[in-house]
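## retry 2 of 3
previous attempt timed out at serialization; input unchanged, resubmitting
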Amino acid sequence: MKLREFLIPFFFGLIGVLAFEPFSIKPLIILSYAYIVRELIGNDTYKIFKLIVWSFGHWGFGMSWLIVSVYYYGETSILLSFIIFILLVLILTVVFALPLLLIKYRLFHGIKSEKIINLFLITSILVLCELSRDYLLNGVPWLIPGIVFLDTYMQNIYSIVGIAGGSSIIYIIATSIAIFWNRRITIFLVSLILFIPVFYSDKELSGDIKVSIVQPSSDPFLKYKNGYKSIIEDNLITLLKNTAKESELIVLPEAELPYTINSEDFIEFKSKLDLDNAYFLFGVWDYSNNKLYNSFLNLNSGQIYNKQHLVPFGEYIPFISSLRGLIDFFDMPMSNVSKGTKNQDNFAIELDKSLKIAPLICFDIAFANTVRKSNISSDLMINISNDTWFGDSIGPYYHLAITRVRAIENNRWIIRSTNDGISAIISNKGTIVDKLEKGKSGVINSGVNIVQERSIYNIYGYYLPYFLSILFLISSVIISACIKQRS
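## retry succeeded, writing output
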């Protein structure tokens, strides 16, 4: 096999990642998927090989933050970190790439309208393969194509059919290029209309509720070292002095304190806070019933939410538990976390009126239906996160983009607090009203508006792209069987 046969699929897998934040060369996602669909429906004998290489380029670059986590947090050699990274990406490649082989099993050949039928059949398979990312490996809904419509006029589709609806459009265009190959340039050029940017004001009126967001930016590599906890505490207390006096909600990030809420250290830290004038909401470690939870605490009321969606290879280790005990990374407290139950209650906040706040921790925000269900009766969302896991990779920027999409989908403002950035106030239109950049320590004193009207997506739009895909697949099988029976 020529080197060219390896480099081309790798290149097209890699350029697809450049469509996402922070690069945002959005049309590249169409070229990336058009290439792999073209290869899968062609007659080439190297289909599986090309799919794996394409996926390795896509996931290898798009999930590059994994090597940051293993190298820095695990304190391993760069060689060992690279080997572990390759193994993890191979797992992701196999799990998420192989279902795409269904594309090569097209049902219609030599009948009228074959190309149009196959267009929607392949699109349906791609949409359902995307849905599978919510469940395989306990869920890794990363690099979702539909997110590229953020900051374009097409982002309005999110409030109707969500990010999956956006992905459906990307898949239709990419598959059209693959099927109608002699018109590929025309189709691609016409599709560029969809990426016309929209410019919203970077400031929107906000003020129904006054909030303060604390971004401590403490050193993640010293966090669990002996003696560093007092530095973390002192830093937090100093930053809290800069919160606005009128703030009604004070939000700190995910699991900043290096001990559990069951400890004496936490009781002592709590005694330093003024709970009379504001609600304190922040991430904590909770050890209950011999299980460790990554939790979100309403300190004033004691109400707690446990993270539902854990990060693979960060908070739990799929398939490779034998590594525990061999590498420091896999023995850290964060790599043995238990997940919270579904349908946990929203936080109840009593201000001038009763408010319901949807609490979401880090990776939870990536799961569209989890966020949708938590906002059926909410007034706003709070997302706390620890993006130090991403290091200086592209991860924090993509994570922020996902959060902005969730605001549009559910027509809700979002308060986002992270350990070292990017913390932000996000409007229901996905606009970043205020933010603290990556790596900075500080406080955001701002406000959010309460929006109670539910979006079409929040009511029932989540199901539409998947329902249509399943309906078309079932119809295709039935029609194909009837055609074969007649012939």
